[in-house]
Amino acid sequence: MLRNSKESFGLISILFHWIIGLIFIGQIALGYLMVRVSDFTLQFNLYQWHKSFGFLVLGLSTLRLLWKSANLRPRDPATLSPLERVAAHGAHVILYLSLFVVPLTGWAIASSSPLRIPTFMFDLVVIPSLPIAISDSAEAFWSASHAWLAYLSAAVAMLHILAALHHHFWKRDTILLRMLAPRAVRNGGRHAT
Ligand code: HEM
Ligand code: HEM
After folding, report:
1. I need a labelling partner for 99 at 20 to 30 A (CA). Which of 16, 18, 117, 143 fits?
2. What is the per-residue pLDDT across 85-94, written as a single tens digit (0 to 9) for each?
């Protein structure tokens, strides 16, 4: 129930997937909006929330990788073609990398900014700066890298979501069900209509 089986993801992997996935999508929307807001106080507050949730993604993703390394990966259903297997696994690797690289480049913006605004996580913990160069040009570099990587990972996440919906509603296999409930899938194959 808690751990993955050969057929399905367990409860812990499922919770990690949906909690991190939803925060990640929320972070893309929040990041896009906050850089375009004109009210200074609102913008400052949105930046603090964005940084806090970004660190939450980084922390949860570290725990998720540790959990993944201690668990089986459910085997691919027989309905997947070799090309789909490669595409799905490639997308998962890119998404796992994004969960680390996007918040880390965000952290690099905060650390390289000459404004030196301290970073708090939910007003509770002070996050130290990364030991990197502090200058306007370094901040501009990390800002551009963060934005590009965030939007590229959003594009891969969009393809990933469309693929999951395609499998569920078009191919009617168990790919989405096994990421929704631990016991939804026992013998693989196709789900009932
Ligand atoms: C899941 C993690 C994160 C995602 C998906 C994400 C996504 C984004 C996006 C989409 C933008 C808007 C880019 C633009 O249109 O210019 C943005 C901006 C920004 N993010 Fe993040 N971010 C994450 C984590 C973080 C973290 C951990 C920090 C800092 C500790 C951070 C700091 C910033 C800053 C300072 C900006 C504004 C950059 C500017 O003013 O040009 N982000 N982020
Ligand atoms: C909200 C819509 C989403 C849906 C419907 C969805 C659906 C799924 C499904 C069905 C799987 C299982 C695939 C399999 O059995 O091989 C999966 C795995 C995965 N998803 Fe999502 N996903 C969503 C959002 C996201 C987001 C936003 C991210 C990351 C930014 C993400 C990252 C991953 C990763 C890394 C895996 C591989 C898990 C593993 O094998 O350890 N997903 N997703």
Report:
1. 117
2. 999 999 999 9
pLDDT beyond 70 at 140: yes
Q: Which sequence spans correspond to the domains of the chain?
A: 11-179
Beta bridge partner(s), residue 190: 173
Q: What is the spatial distance between Cα 106 and Cα 110, in angstroms, rounded to a whole number?
A: 7
Alpha carbon 20 to its chain centroid, in Å, reads 5
Pairwise CA distance, residues 38 & 19, whole Å: 30
Note the pLDDT of residue 150. Answer: 98
Q: What angle do CA 37, 39, 40 make, to 5 degrees?
A: 105
pLDDT at residue 60 greater than cutoff 70: yes
Residue with tokens 């990933």: 160
106 pocket-lining for ligand 1 (C-beta < 6 Å): yes
Name which residue sits closest to atom 33 of ligand 2, judged by CA: 92
HSE-CB for 13 with a 13 A CA cutoff: 23
CA atoms within 13 A on the CB side of 96: 13
Please report where in the chains the tokens 């949730």 appear, as a residue.
Answer: 53
The closest alpha carbon to 184, from 56, 1, 35, belongs to 1
